[in-house]
Give the backbone structure.
Amino acid sequence: MKNGLEIAVVGGGINGLCSAWVLAQQGHAVSLFERDSLMQATSRSSSKLLHGGLRYLENYEFRLVREALRERDAWIARNPQLAQPLRLVLPIYRGSRRSRALVALGLWLYDHIAGKSILPKAQWLGREELLRRDPQLQGDGLLGGYAFSDGHMDDEALGLWVAAQARAAGVQIHEHSAVQRISPAGELTLASGQERNFDRIANIAGPWALELLAQSNLQAEHRLDLVRGSHLVLDAPCPQAYLLEVPHERRIFFVLPWQGKTLVGTTEERQDLHAPIACSATEEAYLLAAYQHYRHSSAPMPAISNRFAGLRPLIYSAADPNRATREYALERQGRITTVVGGKWTTSMALAEKVAVKVSAPIAQPAP
């Protein structure tokens, strides 16, 4: 390849796939290595949302929200079959921890940061309108609520669509090819023992990125906060998507339509990298109680048809994982670029930054 580099991408989740696609479009020869199958871990276990992160405003993460809102719209425009607009409601009750005035300010800021979005702005809906839309919503103390826009997606299908675009751009994808070690000199060793040399290596293995560095006797600049997010799929249609406060907490959770059923999530539980990634009985009870709190007392409780969980690789920044930053960071060690953190919605924006970092000249040691 005349001007391109030989680049290895480690990780077949959405961030790795988007990065490989962008690098190939820029003329590089890209090989992607995934230890299992594509899109089978964290990237397929999301809340199925393409969103700017309304609650991130409470942590003053304005840069991330701006980027995520732009990327939310871009995904919907890029593949409208697998990513569509979604209108959510945030109801306000007497005694809600966030007042109507505070929510109104937050949503005004959310829409303002979004700029000339393709999605409609937030609006207030009265109590009667909310109960008309969803007669099973708890009406006691309900004042009304705000409808606002984000997007939803089929995360696995959309990720596999990205993989198809990457292959079409020339990316060589190797599934079931675990990487055991990498070196700043560009050496990559597979678990099979095969060794290969690359001009650059992009370590985008999500929760396993820093473990790969440790296995390679390399020290990371950041720490990862591994946080499990669990979800329930209830066997009932969802008449309205919601963003809701967990009772007696400032945490929020979502109630969303998913494949004709109702998706409820998510939790935030720290866990070890090698522990089973599954919804615990405690998390299940927590989500069911939160969901039932907002249902009319006569509303039947749907059966659980599925449970799933994903392990989010957050940059360690707070004792409470709910307050941890959703930002991402890029580290460079010789020919290796490592991604720490990263969100589904911002995967293409991250990919553009990875491409710049990976293809930058290698700094020479001072004489």
Remarks:
- The helical segments are 14-25, 62-78, 100-114, 127-133, 155-168, 209-215, 281-293, 347-359.
